[in-house]
Design goal:
This protein is an alpha/beta fold and 550 residues long. β6 (125-128) and β7 form a beta hairpin.
Length: 550
């Protein structure tokens, strides 16, 4: 078999011709054969407007079936898709379209209206994602091809279009498949060059190891498709399986997500911690705090039955059919993880990065260990740069099939993290004796204590986030080795309990003073600053730390 994701797409389309493939939630649905026709038409468009294999095609919009088709069409033609997160500001989008040298641009109307075409001179044209109509054309050939596309399609397939007509581009393993710009919590987008072997290896791992979803199963895609985590695990993998994928075309708030789960009953759910934490903290924890509940939880046998009921209710909230919940993209709150373990909920925490398309580590829910993010995945190796990797955290280095080729037009950044075929993830980790990875924090976030001690702000933030009325926090090095905690409190919940903002600020300071008694002296919080709005985030919901560093 050709080791490319194009082969998986081709095989799945042929095998699942009459099955439902992609649906916009509460909107339009397409069968696998519909996807094949749309891909074929876009291939004709590419051919006739001068797009060649290796040329870049940018895509920027909210998740939708047509977004997925644009991606598939570019990949299977041999073009290089450049997914751009729709949350990016206009000047950033201009920059990424230009930097990637994109020739065509698939874009949502709401985004296009805020852009200036004169600032993107390399483009032949721009097409509206929802129906592929022309928004911009600098080429007579493109205009002609778009206007006569159905006619050209009819001439190309005069009898009728069948699965026998499908023969997608067969790339080399090392050939560039996709450029994905990191959203990053460090402030600068870098174009990650992912080869075909990396996309193939990620999908192959899922097919081999997440074998509880089968052809015809339904899934909800709620992570941004322009991010590798969502694209690989919620689109490429289930499409290769022959699944039916629903796209949440609205902002994935807990209510929108719950409605989708109730309708779709997915077997597999892929999420970031923030969504899961919100559901558990709002639906379950308040219940456990009720006086009667606290008493009952201390009674032997009764507590097991209660936990069983809570697990049942939580399972129903996730659609009642779930075999595994995969959490990734950031660290999971320690209290929430401890609770999920206690009730035997089928969750697991994975680990990856855009540079590995994205998988680095995973373990199935029945094997995952508390605080760990699994073991190194197939066709990858990892090593911790530490004299004692079991006890002393060091930077995690990886190599293997999932790894990128480097950063696009940025040799300096590539050289900074690559060495002898290994790549530095920038994450500080330890390994246990069975190879399970425990992440301590980002090496660039590490703060040096007054006597050279290593302080991991993420570990302190976990403790702060578990304090009453705390939504989220950031710990920064203020000056002279003094730590400051920036806290965004749960103002809404506080108001329900009759607490003003001033009351919450006072409570935060009292609780931090109490927390300091549990922390080593070199990592005491010297100052507290309360923020009245949530911290700015990347699309995968990591806090943009660089905005808050002194």
């Amino acid at each position: 078999m050709n080791e490319s994701v194009n082969q998986y797409i081709e095989d799945s389309v042929k095998k699942n011709w009459e099955e439902l493939a992609l649906t916009d939630f509460n909107g339009v649905s397409f069968q696998y054969r519909d996807i094949a026709r749309k891909i074929a038409k876009l291939h004709i468009l590419f051919e006739n407007c001068g797009v060649k294999p290796g040329d870049k095609v940018a895509i920027c919009g909210k998740n939708s079936a047509q977004w997925a088709v644009a991606l598939f069409a570019a990949l299977t033609y041999g073009a290089v898709p450049v997914p751009i997160l729709h949350e990016f500001k206009a000047d950033n989008i201009h920059h990424l379209v230009n930097h990637s040298e994109a020739k065509l641009f698939f874009v949502d109307l709401a985004i296009w209206e805020n852009l200036d075409a004169s600032l993107m001179q390399n483009l032949i044209g721009a097409l509206l994602i929802s129906d592929y109509s022309l928004l911009l054309s600098r080429s007579q050939e493109l205009r002609h091809a778009r206007e006569h596309l159905n006619e050209m399609f009819g001439k190309r397939y005069p009898e009728r279009f069948t699965k026998d007509d499908i023969k997608y581009y067969k790339p080399e393993r090392e050939e560039l498949a996709l450029i994905n710009y990191t959203s990053g919590s460090t402030g600068f987008s870098k174009g990650v060059m992912l080869p075909h072997r990396a996309l193939w290896s990620n999908v192959k791992f899922c097919l081999d190891n997440l074998d509880f979803i089968k052809r015809g199963d339904e899934l909800v895609c709620m992570l941004p498709l322009a991010h590798m985590y969502g694209m690989a695990i919620e689109l490429l993998y289930p499409f290769a399986c022959g699944c039916h994928i629903y796209f949440l075309t609205r902002v994935p708030s807990p209510k929108v997500i719950m409605d989708a789960f109730a309708k779709v009953h997915p077997k597999l759910i892929v999420a970031v911690p923030l969504i899961i934490e919100k559901i558990v903290k709002t639906k379950v924890f308040p219940l456990l705090e009720k006086p009667l509940m606290r008493i009952l939880m201390r009674v032997p046998y009764v507590d097991d039955r209660l936990l069983g009921r809570i697990k049942e209710q939580l399972s129903l909230a996730f659609g009642g059919n779930m075999k595994e919940l995969i959490i990734g993209g950031a660290a999971l709150n320690a209290d929430v993880e401890a609770f999920l373990r206690k009730i035997g909920f089928p969750y697991t925490v994975g680990y990856g990065m855009t540079e590995c398309a994205p998988l680095i580590a995973y373990a199935p829910c029945e094997e995952i260990r508390h605080g760990s993010c699994g073991q190194i995945v197939d066709r990858m190796e990892g090593m911790v740069d530490s004299p004692d990797p079991g006890n002393v955290a060091g930077e995690l280095w990886v190599r293997g099939d999932n790894m990128m080729l480097g950063y696009y037009k940025n040799q300096e950044a590539t050289d900074a993290i690559m060495r002898d075929g290994w790549m530095n993830t920038g994450d500080l980790c330890t390994f246990d004796e069975d190879g399970f990875i425990y992440i301590r924090g980002r090496s660039k976030n590490m703060i040096l204590g007054p006597s050279g001690q290593n302080i991991y702000p993420e570990e302190i933030e976990q403790k702060i986030n578990n304090l009453p009325y705390v939504c989220e926090s950031v710990v920064v090095d203020k000056s002279n080795h003094t730590l400051e905690a920036l806290i965004y409190p749960d103002i809404e919940n506080g108001a329900k309990q009759g607490l003003s903002v001033a009351d919450l600020e006072k409570l935060m300071r009292e609780n931090i003073a109490q927390l300091n008694k549990e922390l080593p002296s070199y990592s005491h919080i010297a100052e507290v600053k309360v923020y009245l709005e949530e911290f700015e985030k990347t699309p995968k919901r990591s806090i943009k730390r660089y905005l808050y560093q002194h």
